[in-house]
Amino acid sequence: MENETHTVTCSAPVNIAVIKYWGKRDEELVLPVNSSLSVTLNQDQLRTVTTVSVSRKFQKDRIWVNNREESMENPRLKRLLAEVRRLTKEQGSMSGNGTRPPSHDCHMHICSENNFPTAAGLASSAAGYACLAYTLCQLYHLQVDVSLLARQGSGSACRSVYGGFVKWEMGEREDGSDSIAVQVAPESHWLELEVLILVVSSEKKAVSSTRGMQTTVKTSPLMKYRCETVVPQRMETMERAIVERDFPSFARLTMQDSNQFHAVCLDSYPPILYLNDTSKRVMQLVTAYNKLHQEERVAYTFDAGPNAVLYCLRETMSELISLVTHYFPPTPGNERNYIRGISSEDCRTDSDFTKKLKLTFDPTPGLLQYIIRTSVGDGPRLLTQPLLGLDGLPLA
Ligand code: DP6
């Protein structure tokens, strides 16, 4: 009994915001200056798996991320674990579903892996902290709002604790107890909505979100207008567009909010630039495509980096893939594996169609590393296959 090891393994998805979170009013508790809204992506293409083991045999807390042991000296991680232990101590005797949760004073081993390259800059901290928070809640039988814990690891992580369409209500209270994620609609609500992620080739590492948003909040005059006037209204309109499955409205708002997020970044001092020339070409392509069809059929959005995430309806996907691969072909030799994820239909570019787009740039190979086709997905899952062995060390 004394030497018993408790182990739980879970997975959690990535989410991509359509109304962006940018800026904190409390750095410690990770409380935002505006509400935000996101789409949870399918875990088949992008997910984090985390195993947590707890045992009296362990000498100290340890963490492995993507096959490498990392330091536990990360303030957000330490804070999250301290909060979980405090809640476990408080709730310990109350959690009564038959089995006893492990004690709050045992050491933890944590092992976490992504099924996508972390270096690609694809919201890995959101899936990572959502997965850790969810796994800890399962392990310790915690009766708390999981999003509240995930938020303290990384703000955007709180939206990855649900599938489908999720909003993060900024809340008002100083202790952050009302700053939580809420599901707007489940993944089954809008099955036609699909996602294409363009992983842009870039060498430079962007300014981290945490640091970038501090500079914006401190220095951007535009930011005040965004938080007080623009976002509250956009949250309502976006929620309605999703509930009504109104793609043109959803697309327009998504692009406008991405544009404004990058505008407040540029309005910061010193300025923050996340978009590069490839990102701008993607914006041009989508704009020209929508103009040709005289309605929004594709939406782009960019986070704190140059990668583009495109949303469209399934009926548009084949044409979109043709266009993207026409203007952004792979480097010779990189054709295999260029498009990953949900298997793509045969896509052919109609050359008359591309001429009608009237773009100011020519097709250029190698601007994208690869493309991921995915869809809207579900929230965290409990798994049976652990990443840690009985000795508490990584299996792989
Ligand atoms: C641009 O959640 O990474 O992706 O709370 O400081 O960890 P911290 O920041 P993070 O910020 C993500 C910002 C964003 C927009 C969004 O996801 O809403």
From TrEMBL:
<keyword id="KW-0752">Steroid biosynthesis</keyword>
<dbReference type="Pfam" id="PF22700">
    <property type="entry name" value="MVD-like_N"/>
</dbReference>
<dbReference type="Pfam" id="PF18376">
    <property type="entry name" value="MDD_C"/>
</dbReference>
<dbReference type="GO" id="GO:0005829">
    <property type="term" value="C:cytosol"/>
</dbReference>
<keyword id="KW-0444">Lipid biosynthesis</keyword>
<keyword id="KW-0152">Cholesterol biosynthesis</keyword>
<comment type="pathway">
    <text>Steroid biosynthesis; cholesterol biosynthesis.</text>
</comment>
<keyword id="KW-0547">Nucleotide-binding</keyword>
<comment type="function">
    <text>Catalyzes the ATP dependent decarboxylation of (R)-5-diphosphomevalonate to form isopentenyl diphosphate (IPP). Functions in the mevalonate (MVA) pathway leading to isopentenyl diphosphate (IPP), a key precursor for the biosynthesis of isoprenoids and sterol synthesis.</text>
</comment>
<dbReference type="InterPro" id="IPR029765">
    <property type="entry name" value="Mev_diP_decarb"/>
</dbReference>
<protein>
    <recommendedName>
        <fullName>Diphosphomevalonate decarboxylase</fullName>
        <ecNumber>4.1.1.33</ecNumber>
    </recommendedName>
</protein>
<dbReference type="GO" id="GO:0005524">
    <property type="term" value="F:ATP binding"/>
</dbReference>
<dbReference type="GO" id="GO:0006695">
    <property type="term" value="P:cholesterol biosynthetic process"/>
</dbReference>
<feature type="domain" description="Mvd1 C-terminal">
    <location>
        <begin position="195"/>
        <end position="382"/>
    </location>
</feature>
<dbReference type="InterPro" id="IPR036554">
    <property type="entry name" value="GHMP_kinase_C_sf"/>
</dbReference>
<comment type="similarity">
    <text>Belongs to the diphosphomevalonate decarboxylase family.</text>
</comment>
<dbReference type="GO" id="GO:0019287">
    <property type="term" value="P:isopentenyl diphosphate biosynthetic process, mevalonate pathway"/>
</dbReference>
<keyword id="KW-0756">Sterol biosynthesis</keyword>
<dbReference type="InterPro" id="IPR041431">
    <property type="entry name" value="Mvd1_C"/>
</dbReference>
<keyword id="KW-0753">Steroid metabolism</keyword>
<feature type="domain" description="Diphosphomevalonate decarboxylase-like N-terminal">
    <location>
        <begin position="12"/>
        <end position="181"/>
    </location>
</feature>
<keyword id="KW-0456">Lyase</keyword>
<dbReference type="InterPro" id="IPR005935">
    <property type="entry name" value="Mev_decarb"/>
</dbReference>
<dbReference type="GO" id="GO:0004163">
    <property type="term" value="F:diphosphomevalonate decarboxylase activity"/>
</dbReference>
<dbReference type="InterPro" id="IPR053859">
    <property type="entry name" value="MVD-like_N"/>
</dbReference>
<keyword id="KW-0067">ATP-binding</keyword>
<keyword id="KW-1207">Sterol metabolism</keyword>
<dbReference type="InterPro" id="IPR020568">
    <property type="entry name" value="Ribosomal_Su5_D2-typ_SF"/>
</dbReference>
<keyword id="KW-0443">Lipid metabolism</keyword>
<keyword id="KW-0153">Cholesterol metabolism</keyword>
<dbReference type="InterPro" id="IPR014721">
    <property type="entry name" value="Ribsml_uS5_D2-typ_fold_subgr"/>
</dbReference>
